[in-house]
Structure prediction request, 698 residues.
Amino acid sequence: MRLMAVRLVCAAMVATAAGTRCPAAPSASDEPRRLLVVSVPGLRADDIQHPRSQALRSLASRAAVGWMNTRTARVPGQRRDPPEAVYVSLASGARAKVGEWVGRPSLATMDRLARLNTTLNYRVPVGALGRAVLGAGGSTEAVGNEDDTAPRRAALLLAMDPLGRVSRDATGAGPPRGSQSLAPFGIRQTYRDFAVPRATLTVWVFGDVVRADRYARLCTPAAAASHRDAALAGLDAFLERRVLPLLQQRELAVALIAPGPAPSAPDGDRLAPVVWSAGGASRGLLTSPSTRTPGLVTVTDFLPSALHWLRLKEPPGLVGRPWYAGGEAPDGATEAARWASLYRAWLDRSERQRAFGGLAGLQAALAFAGFLLVWRGGRAGAVRACALAVLVLPAFHLLAPVVPMPGLWAAWAAAIACMVGVGLVGAMGPTPLVRAVGVGCAGLVAAVAPVDLATGGDLVRGAWMGYSVMEGARYYGIGNELGGALLGCGLVAISAAAPLAAQVGRAALASWALVTVFLVGSPGAGANVGAFAGAAAGLGACAVVLLRASGRGRAGLVVVASAAALTVAIGAIDVLAGPHAQSHLARALLQGPELPMLVARKVQLNLFLILHSVWALGLVAGLLWYAACRARIEGPLSMSDRLRRAGLLAGGGAMLALNDSGVVAAALTVLPVAAASALWLPRLPEPSGVPCEPSSPA
Prediction:
């Protein structure tokens, strides 16, 4: 023993003299990490506070919680996203589509899925999660199913690689159909069906909740409620006995998800509950750089989150980002109540966004009516009523959500009251008042929207003319709808104020324009490249007109150079930001082969909307209205008219060409400008007793 001790001391001295280090003992961080995915199809928001869901609430208090937008690839005629498509999307990191033949996945299934998704205009690496795990020498397994009258084992797609390989397939294990005669479809799972997870990636499927949901249409309401109570009681025992004891394992992450909303969820619902515990250290609200919204993640965030935890390399072209826990982490019932309340708030907001959506049909009808009245020489009161209605709608959509309203009926009542009020002002009010109201509505949008973008964007997120959490196309920044409305309203305000403003006033307008353009394009605020280009082109064109009118035409080159410098600065900020803070465009630029696919996807969507969207009618009607107003102007154009024309041609054209929904942005740019042109239209019959006003403030 003494000789051995001497040898060890000598060896240590030699190692120290040579400048080397002895191998360190393995630490907890060096141990292989594992991931357990617990799939509970059919889980709803109201289940969170159900009396039977005590273990679920306990889990929520000890982990990070949130809601996942589970939108998959768009398929014509498809009203709901199939859970099978959600499983494929989770495992591939891209929104996928499936066929009806995915109930029992196999090698042939994976081949068909790969071929089917090549028809999309973006990459869908089917089986990416399984390939990453197996390729790194790990193992995968899947246990449980959601069978009813047919095999439903699509959760296996989470663990399979592109060749259909999985280390252990136990999706057929558990009680056979008919073994529980009183259970939905004769099947009931228990916690005993699930053993301690040992694989690198383990997928557990608890299918009783969705079986009860599907069985509800085959039985009485009382029986359906009883079946759901029993399923939730079984889920509670399963979570209590099998999942909660695993949360303290430092090398294990647990993700509880629902593969899409329950079959009984409202139409248009795309939010599914998600719980995440990484080594027992995650608490609070789950979020990701994809949404920048506490409590909200996307289906494409799951794969990068799983690979990040497992320390595996991401495949190129992923649009999702790893999620993380943030915000406060209250205890027990408080966390569960907040978790459920987020869903109710987003569902209510999305219903109003879907109901209003900018009222594209109404705006198109108002613009077409205004065009006919101007073309046929209708009364000025009717023309101005249409113009005021168009100008008030963007402000109403942006600011009305601030006012608490008990339901959708109250929102419609407020919209009708607003429209009737401004219609009466336009039809019967004196011309100066009508113009002041119109410019005030436009100025309100032009002033409030940039301030909101600079302070977090809460108004823009909640606007009824904005993007929807349920739709899942955008989650932060300024959307194409408000981007177009902001430019259109800004052009109205500038054309009314700039001709009358002194030098200091014009400098203030220039500062507003510069700040607005920066905020719209900044990755940390508006994050909208197409709207940035449109705003820069439209407001820059107005600056050139003003400079030429003041005899400083050559200064227009300074405007062009400033726009180019601003573009370079915003691009540099985006590209040089960290990987988890970059916009999707910066990521595409850095992943060269993905950029052409991104451009093609945006062009394809814009062409589709031009042919199918109601906003295309609004764009045409707005252009006709503006052209009819221009045709009635004799002699040289006033300064206001020239500002509106320059901004409309440059900004509206850029909005149309450079946005994936350019027809929407262009329409909402054109409509306010056409309405403002109608307000200053000369020589139309006036209401009795109202004097005629000159055509322009200039």
Remarks:
- The mean pLDDT is 84.
- The longest helix spans residues 332-356.
